Amino acid sequence: MIIIKSLRELELMRESNRVVAEALQELAKNVAAGITTEELDGIAEEHIRRRGGVPAFKGYRGYPASLCISVNEEIVHGIPGSKKLQDGDIVSLDLGVLLNDYYGDAAITVAVGSVSPQVQKLLQVTENALYKGIEQALVGNRLLDISRAIQGTVEAQGFSVVRDFVGHGIGRSLHEEPQIPNFYSPTAYNPRLKEGMVFALEPMVNEGTYKMKILEDEWTAVTADRKLSAHFEHTVAITRNGPWILSSLNDEKKSLDLAG
Ligand code: MF3
Ligand code: CO
Fold first, then answer.
1. 3-state secondary structure of 4
2. pLDDT digits (tens, 9 = 90+) for 23-52
3. Which bound ligand lies closest to the C-alpha atom of 98?
4. Is the CB of 94 under 6 A from ligand 1?
5. Residue range 118-166, pLDDT digits in tens
6. Which of 77, 108, 207, 236 fits 219 for a cystine, CB–CB 3.0-4.6 Å?
7. What does the alpha-carbon distance between residue 195 and residue 153 come to, in Å, rounded to a whole number?
8. Which of ligand 1's atoms lies nearest the C-alpha of 77?
9. How confident is the model at residue 102 (pLDDT cuts 50, 70, 90)?
């Protein structure tokens, strides 16, 4: 069952996602050669608590940190530690916040110092694929219209879409129905989209194969061929006036006539 949110609930989710977005912005400013991933985790947690929120990932199925930091060939769920970032790395920062009983969730991938045009392209295509998916988050469309748009954008540029992790509904739980694959399959669940649905869309895009492995820490997912991977995520509400990107600091509230 896909839980429909009221306008009041969307407004609360906006506040959770605002904290996520501000924290990611602050993290991006701090990404530089020499900083450790656990220092970034500390910055994230401090920001969230200062705003009265709770880090959503900490303790989730035993995950030990506030932030997931996935460097280079790491796809998702990298655990912060003493690793220092280096010039030329790419770093995915994935953050969730619980505030006023509602979750927010978003991710960005940023480069440390200078990276090659091919690597810049990987980041650009992944972010672009997210926005192409968001464009399809429309009342009356079907769920897999989002998936198809993401996959098409990625594959047209010669990259691959990760199969083992998907986007998700979000609200009073971090993960609600439905699952939102970043690729099309004719047998996948494909409901019509309705006003008040809220989705965390999160393409993970690989330079090479889409296949992955989980490291010994039982969390970190890496590309099977150890080529690079990027990840962008937004929490998006479906409204009659189009997608409302709750985790974007630039997307201010549209005039919504959802039920209060
Ligand atoms: N954005 C990811 C997701 O929604 C991150 C979850 S990390 C975990 O699945 F630690 F909470 F599992
Ligand atoms: Co998510």
1. coil
2. 999 999 999 999 999 999 999 999 999 999
3. 1
4. yes
5. 999 999 999 999 999 999 999 999 999 999 999 999 999 999 999 999 9
6. 77
7. 25
8. 7
9. very high
